[in-house]
Amino acid sequence: MKRILILFLLVIVCSCSTNPESYLEHVNGYWEIDQVLFTDGAKKQYKDNETIDYISINDSLKGFRKKLKPGFNSKYITSKDAEGITVKIENDSLNFYYKTPYASWKETVLSANENQMKVVNDRETVYIYKRYKPLELDLE
């Protein structure tokens, strides 16, 4: 009976763990920072964002992140600058490796679903993003 109970608990624990590869289907698209959690316990809430992030990852696990300024009716202002991303699954984590001409760094995706994404950087600062919903105006 004890072995069955241990086996049952093991199955439950294993089935509840999240596969970081499943986050990949959710990361593409437009994101805005909702809040930032700092290592000292401080929290910064964002109500309005002047810029949003557009993330695009392809099937070869390469992509980019661009900063965009939202306009009206799904129009965006952007520059030609983009941060290159290489995605790797390491130690049961989904990691984004960024590279620009000026710096390189890593972020780990803690969770991602249709509406929210949480990432942590190397300073252990957690960024919580929410899916960006463009402002649509009915001009008729």
From TrEMBL:
Keywords: Signal. Transmembrane segments: none annotated. This is Lipocalin-like protein. Residues 1-20 form the signal peptide. InterPro entries: Lipocalin-like (IPR024311). It holds the Pfam family Lipocalin_4. Residues 28-118 form the Lipocalin-like domain. The keyword Signal applies. PROSITE patterns: PROKAR_LIPOPROTEIN. It comes from Winogradskyella wandonensis.
